Amino acid sequence: MPDQFVQRSRQGWGERLGGAFGGIITGIVMTLISFVMLFWNEGRAVKRYQTLEEGAGNVISIASGNLDPSFDGKLVHMTGRAEVSGALEDSQFGVSAEAIKLDRAVEMYQWHEKKQTKTENKTGGGTEKKTVVTYEKAWSSTLKKSNNFDHPSGHQNPDSMPFSPKSFVAEKVSLGVFRLPEFFIKQIKGAAEIPINSLEQLPEEIRPGAKLHNGGLYFGADPATPEVGDTRVNFTAVLPAEISVVAKQAGDTLEKYHAAAGGDLEILAMGTESAEAMFEAEQVANKTLTWALRGAGFLLMATGLGLIARPLKVMADVLPIAGRVVGAGVGFFAFALAAIGSSLTIAAAWIFYRPLIGISVLVITGLFIFWLVKRLRKAKPEEAGPPSMATSTDSPPPL
What we know:
With 399 residues, this protein is α+β, with helices and mostly antiparallel strands. Helices cover 37% and strands 28% of the residues. The protein is built from five helices and 19 strands.
C-alpha cells in the first residue's frame, strides 16, 4: 500500500497580490514569445511545403544495387535492405547481435513521490493549499533522488543505479551498393528483443548476482517480490530491414539535398514505399506539425495574457464568489484575445509569405472581431412615450 501525507499551507491576500503583479512580466514575455513562435511557424511551414513540392517534381527513382555516376548531385529515391557487416557487442554483459543498433535498457525498483494539490479561496482573499504526498514503489529507468523527497524517512532509494542504459550504433550500414550516412542510420526503427538464455555468456564479475527473468537479467533476491534497489536489464536491437530513402546521391553515399526553396530533404521510411507516397506522407506530417505549433502558440499567448490580467482576479478574491466571476471573465477575455492575436499573427505571416491566403485569414479574423464586439456591446433601450389615450368617436359596442 502507498504511504500518504497531507500538507496544508496558507497564503495571505497581500502575498498573493504581490505574486500576481510579479507574474505580469512573465506574462508579457510569454505573449511576446508566442507572437515570434507563430510567425516563425508559418514561415517554416511554407518553406517545407515548397521544398517538398520541388523535391516531388525533381526526384528520380533508381536501383540501390546500381551505382550510376550520372545521378551524382541529383535527388534520388531508392528502396532495399539496410545491411550491416559485423556484430555490435555490449562487452559489459557479453551480449552481441548483427544489428544496426543495440540498446541496453536498465530499470531499478524505487520509491516514487507524487503530489496532488488543491487550492481553496478563503474570504478575505487568502488561500488554503492542501497537498497530498504519496509514496509508492515502482520500476523506473531514471534514478529517483530520495534526498529531494518531502518525507525521505522510510523512503530511501540507492544513491546510484548499478548499471547505466547504453546504445551501440553500427558505423557502417549499406543499402545495396550505397553507404548510408549517420542521419539515416539513426532514423531506422523496429527494435526486436534480444533474449538472454544463459548466464554463461556473462562476465564473471556480474554473473553471481544475476538471474534469468522474462528474457532479460534480474539482480535481486526474488523477481516475484521485488525490493527497493533490485534491478532488471533487457536488450533490444534494430535488425537489418527493408527501407526507402530520398536524398542526394554523392558518389557511393547519400547527402541532404538542398532545395532552391531553402529547405533540406532527407527522407526515410520503413518498408518499401514509392517516392510519391513518401512525399505525400511528409506533406501530411508538415500540416500536422504546423497545427500543433499553432495550438502551442495560442495556448502560450492565452496563458501569458491570463498572467497579465491575474491581479484583477486576485483583487476580486476578497469575496470568493466575486473572484470566481472575475476569474471566468478574465479567462474568457484571455482566450478571446489570444484567438484574435494568434489569427492576426498568422495572417500577417501569410501576407508576408503568401499574400493571397494571408488576406483571406485577415478578413475572417476581422469578421470574428466584429462578431465579438457586437456580442459584448450593450443594447440601448429604445425610448418610448406614454401610451396614447385616443378618444373613439365610433359608436359604443352593443351591450
